[in-house]
Amino acid sequence: MVVFAGQGDARRSMALLWGSGDSPEARPGPKPGLSVERIVDAAITVADTEGMASLSMRAVGERLGRTAMALYTYVPGKAELVDLMYDRALGELPTGYDLSAGWRKALTAWADDTCACYLRHPWLLLVSQARPVLGPNEYLTLETLLGVLRETGLDGDVLRRVVGTLFHFVRGAAQTIAEARQAEAATGVSDHAWWLGRSGPLREAAPDFASRFPNVTWLESSSSPRPPGEPGPYLEYEARKTFEGGLAIIFDGIETARQARPDASPQVGGQSFDPTPARSVGR
Question: How far is CA 195 from CA 98, 213, 234, 282, in A?
């Protein structure tokens, strides 16, 4: 399933995301028993433990010991709730990285942290990147990444593409790892048993496999075997190795771009700000 953000009332969503509107807990009188924060935390727990398909106002209410109707005083509906959940989860990410050892090490730490956040909350991967949430933590993740990337000295046009590439790459790697973890639980068959059960029938069905696909055969025969005792599904191991190797290739590309633009330097200040172009660089 794919969930599209930003489907609720725009003004209400922005007020909730940025804490700029009236809220029941801020009104005079006795304090209410619920809060937006408690509702969002409960919704994240539902999505973490039961999956996004199980998320509903009723399910969140039950976790809080309330009816679904009691939640609507705080959050207009599920659409706005998803926006709040997404932005709250991104708030777990660090807001700065040590650059004393160089941008490559800092970017590696950023990629590791971002991938880990996706894996803690796999439902994040179901929220489409087509439309951003436009919340403060979403912008903070972009601000943090740019704080590292500006150390490369590349200009804005190049960095825009680098940002998009990094977000798509990390998200894709996390997607594969998350699915590898879910596959055995969903099917009851381990990676090893799955491959073992199909390798024989494949050889029988395609005895000329090596001659028909020589490059694939070469790649498989030249690849290093998985070290013994390596934990996790085989696909997860492969995805992690691809993640490490892919980051190195992306970083080499950044370095090549730096060498091609030796005089490029970050531009600071004196610029007006329009938040909407952020949608084109990924999240």
Answer: 42, 19, 10, 35
